[in-house]
Design brief:
Layout lengths: L14 E3 L4 E6 L5 E6 L1 H11 L4 E3 L7 H13 L2 E2 L10 E7 L5 E6 L10 H9 L6 E5 L8 H13 L3 E5 L10 H12 L4 E5 H6 L7 H11 L5 E5 L5 E5 L4 E5 L12 H20 L6 H8 L3 H18 L10 H10 L3 E5 L2
Length: 349
């Protein structure tokens, strides 16, 4: 397959991300813990910026040492901070244990923390001040049922304002006190999305019916009629993009990778996908803002779907070969996709 190279994006904020920023305390084999900057939405911010997308992080960060380190890394990666002044609340913590295959298991400490010190009105006002904003992203721990009054009204307002809404389910059921309420909140957030990302494990946790992950993903897309696109990740078994039209494309690495760990892989995947879609939308209608990306995704051509998925897979593949979340830049992901073409395929509705 011959891939086109969409042009770079303008140096303005096109994406705004809301959700957790925390420290992953990753257990080493001898029992000590390595502190790493993390959080799904924090990782997504970094990954988007490193892919050349003008990105703003919407949540506040702590004045403690961890918060200062989180802020410094965002700035180093080119992320714009909505809150340049730190807050007194402490930084969220996640204790991460890796299994023999490098897959993480999390325990979170998130009461009274900095990234939860937000309001729906504050998020909306910040977004309104970004004239070039095209898409907004949330998911993961932001979909905690205890924060429903923050994120659901904000998502509804952003969709009404014509921006492309992206929700990454990214469930963490083991740390939610009320799993039924958590599922309800996640489904409510997905109902506002133009673009949904979910893993095979997410679909099981959400109790989506179906005989396999692909069938569950199709059911979830059908159950959310406002969504145009659903990305289904299957770990080492590849990923699917399902479109509202019924079209679908698949990609998988041609040979197994030397996986260090999978921390941040899904976040890097989503960043690669969104960066490619943004570039393609900008190339098609350079002057567009707001609903332009949503309109582009709604009528996404098959070739554009395949190319975006291949770039997303390459982004995740590079991440899993590093310890912790080390998102690739656009050039590295594009180069990987060219040097090591993914196994691709597709089917129609």
């Amino acid at each position: 397959m011959t891939f086109t190279v969409p042009p770079a994006l303008p140096p303005t904020v096109q994406a705004a991300v809301a959700g957790e920023a925390l420290i992953d305390l990753i257990r080493r084999p001898e029992g000590s813990y390595l502190p790493c900057l993390g959080g799904a939405l924090y990782n997504l911010c970094r990954a988007l910026a490193r892919q050349g997308v003008g990105t703003q992080y919407l949540n506040p960060l702590s004045r403690d040492r961890f918060g200062r380190e989180l802020a410094a890394q965002l700035v180093a990666d080119g992320v714009h901070l909505a809150h340049t002044d730190p807050v007194q609340q402490v930084t969220s913590l996640a204790v991460v244990n890796l299994d023999a295959h490098g897959h993480p298991d999390y325990a979170f400490y998130r009461d009274g923390v900095a990234d939860r010190a937000v309001t729906a009105q504050g998020l909306a006002e910040t977004c309104a001040a970004l004239p070039s904003l095209q898409l907004i992203c949330t998911g993961a721990l932001a979909l905690d049922a205890r924060d429903t009054a923050i994120y659901l009204p904000w998502l509804a307002a952003q969709r009404a304002a014509g921006r492309c809404v992206v929700v990454d389910a990214n469930l963490r059921p083991s740390v939610m006190p009320d799993l039924a309420a958590y599922r309800t909140t996640v489904h409510a957030a997905l109902a506002h999305a133009h673009i949904i990302k979910a893993s095979d494990e997410d679909l099981e946790h959400l109790a989506v019916p179906g005989t396999d992950a692909l069938a569950r993903a199709r059911h979830l897309l059908a159950a959310n009629p406002q969504a145009h696109l659903l990305a289904l990740t299957l770990g080492a078994d590849g990923a699917w993009l399902l479109h509202r039209s019924g079209a679908a494309c698949f990609a998988q690495e041609p040979q197994p990778l030397e996986v260090i760990d999978t921390v941040g892989a899904g976040d890097s995947f989503l960043a690669g996908l969104l960066a490619h879609l943004l570039r393609q939308a900008h190339a098609q209608t350079p002057a567009t803002a707001g609903g332009g990306v949503a309109s582009f995704v709604e009528a996404l051509p098959a070739q554009a779907c395949t190319e975006a998925l291949a770039h997303a897979l390459a982004s995740a593949s590079l991440c899993v070969q590093e310890q912790g979340c080390v998102p690739p830049c656009w050039e590295d992901a594009a180069g990987w996709a060219l040097r090591r073409p993914a196994v691709t395929g597709g089917l129609s509705g």
